[in-house]
Model the fold of this input.
Amino acid sequence: MGAVAITTLAGARLIIAVPKWSFLGEISPFLKGFTLFFWAAGTWWIPLLLILGVWRHIRKHFPLAYDPLYWGMVFPLGMYTVCTLQLSKAIAFEPLLVISRYFVFVALAAWLATFIGLFWSWLPQKKSVETTVRN
Done:
């Protein structure tokens, strides 16, 4: 999701630069088409990631504990927010602003949860009763 969000952001920035570069004007339909394609691909990942998260933690009972790999999950959420904002400006499509306006809170919540998980993992954990009895 992060790669397609970055690609969408690059495409949106190129679309915005079309008036300054004649070459970009010539390939503008191509730019718009592929930029929208990559944005749609990034959008498609969102429900898939939610489904996989539910499957992992609820269905398979995998413990919800901090893992450094979670940073690789929250980064694309922020990139998706930025690329959606830039795409809405590039193609002058106001409804996309609604997505970025509210999705930023989803991204911030995910970043905050991961950040708190990082600090929580640094705290000394209490030993369980079984560990104390064995020693």
Notes: The two ends are 47 Å apart (CA to CA). The first helix runs from residue 2 to 16. The mean pLDDT is 90. The CA atoms of residues 84 and 99 lie 7 Å apart.
